[in-house]
Amino acid sequence: MGKVMVIGCGGVASVAIHKICQNSEVFTELCIASRTVSKCDALKEKLQKTTKTNITTAQVDADNVQELTELIKKEKPEVVLNLALPYQDLTIMDACLEAGVHYIDTANYEPEDTAKFEYKWQWAYRERFEQAGLTALLGSGFDPGVTSVFSAYALKHYFDEINYIDILDCNAGDHGYPFATNFNPEINIREVSANGSYWENGGWVETKPMEIKRVYNFPEIGEKDMYLLHHEEIESLALNIPGIKRIRFFMTFGESYLNHLRCLEDVGMTSIEPIMYNGQEIVPLQFLKAVLPDPSSLGPRTKGKTNIGCIFIGKKDGKEKTLYIYNTCDHQECYKEVGSQAVAYTTGVPAMIGAMMVMTGQWKKPGVYNMEEFDPDPFMDALNKWGLPWKISENPELVE
Ligand code: NDP
Which atom of ligand 1 lies at the shortest distance from residue 140's CA? Predict the structure, then answer.
């Protein structure tokens, strides 16, 4: 059918690229473009013999709009799947507009010097994408991404009105290290050390980091401690789900992770303020990233499951109704299939599906959109087909 260009070749990209290669009817050609071209070449070497998708590779600095535009114009993909870091979202969107191709990502733009997740920068591109007749699909990972599609699906098929959403992200995987992050350490630590917040009655309620703790008994996993975090899908769901009164996001963390994080914070290692060290400017968090285990090395050692989903409370035919839609994913199964643990898997699979939705025209509309703004049904079917089957419970335990 067409050509996709993947930008970035880290943990999430590796899974998405494996899945693109399994789906060569849709993705007849693939260009992998990243900062370190040797990683792209190594993946091509591994996958080309297993797939009909024709793979090429390229070196690119995704902070440089001109370089990106030239590469996109030369390679001529139909869609660009941005799996670099959130800092590159705007430069890649600019290059897609210049070159006339559709855009998909998994995380919203964040300026490198301010740990602040907000859609305002990317939503400001709406008119330009509309006028160019191009689609930009934002947040096609698991959360945001699948959680947003679960919300649209619940609204379409189960509710007249959804009033409360709790998004629960549980990783019960054990990698055996005292401290490591499951995806890019810099992005992960910026997220969990920021203030928490949730949406209630039309506005944000801010909390201190890890201030709100709950214990939840996750299906197929058991009881885990979870903490309220700010998360980007809350911002768009608050606008796109009519009748919503409250949206919260919880993520599980073990005691060891939190103790290490507190200690690193106390000594200043998680700071994003540059400091001088031996005559060179360094950012403590970037230095910390360099000494922590590489998330892509966790695959063979991580055992256990993830469970990510949404609990909805709302009304159907005038009566109160509850619903839980979730996916569980086994770290070792993911490793066997694509050589990565479940956190990269649960992000890389929906990234491929988002690119497929745009490529096949099932989700194609000029403008900039969040995931819940499209028909959820084809995406939900694709999750079942491509490795992330979901389950529904109509009588779930609720979060207090
Ligand atoms: P990694 O750090 O493993 O990979 C990032 C890749 O981008 C690397 O290959 C890196 O190159 C490349 N890159 C970084 N900067 C540039 C640049 N300037 N030019 C070209 N390439 C660049 O990150 P992850 O795979 O863990 O995460 C990828 C994205 O997925 C992130 O945006 C993250 O926030 C998002 N994510 C979304 C989730 C969701 O559920 N929605 C969950 C988890 C992650 P190099 O190899 O040279 O370092």
Answer: 41
